[in-house]
Give the backbone structure.
Amino acid sequence: MTFFSPTQVFLNYRGEQLRYSFVSHLIDAFERNEINFFVDKYEQRGKDLKNLFLRIQESKIALAIFSTRYTESSWCMDELVKIKKLADKGKLHVILIFYKVKVEDVRKQTGEFGDNFWTLAKVSSGDQIKKWKEALECISNKMGLSLGDKSYEADFVKDVVKAVRSVVAEIGLEEEDNHFGKKKRKDCKCELPDFKKSRTKKL
C-alpha cells in the first residue's frame, strides 16, 4: 500500500559525501512510498542559495542529515540556520539524522565533524560562525535517528521513512485541528515523534 503525501520534505545534507550512497537509497524509498520531497539536484544550475531557502519555506518537513563532512559546506550550514529559524516559529518540523557521526560531535563541534567546522570557520565571518554554532547546538539537542558504523543501512532507511510518515500524520492532525478552530498544538517542531523507541535516541 502506497502512502501519498502532498507535504514536501526538504533534504539538507552534504551532497559530495552522501548523494550517491545513503541519500540515493533514501530517495528511492521516498519514491516507492510516494513521499513528496526536494533535493538540490533538482534545482536549476546557476541559481543561488535564495532559491533553496524558498524551497525550505515551501516545505513542511526538513530532514537534516549530519555526516562527518556536513560542516565542509557553508551552504549546508546556512540551510540549517534557515531551518532552525522556521522551526522556532513553528512553521517547519525537523527530523534529525546522525549518519555515522556522534551526536556530541555535532553539538560541540568536535571530532572529524568539528575539525571540518573549524576549517570552514577560518574563512567565514564571526556572525556566520555564531549563527552556525547556535543552529547546531539547538537542533542537535532534540531527538533523532542515529546510524552507527555497524548498523544495517537498509533497515535504517525504513526507519527514516516511518519517521517521515509519522510526522506527516502529525501535520495532518494539526491542520485538521486548525481547520475546525481548535487550539493549536505546542509540540516542539524540532522533535522526532516517538514512533519506535528502539530506533530513536533522545539527546
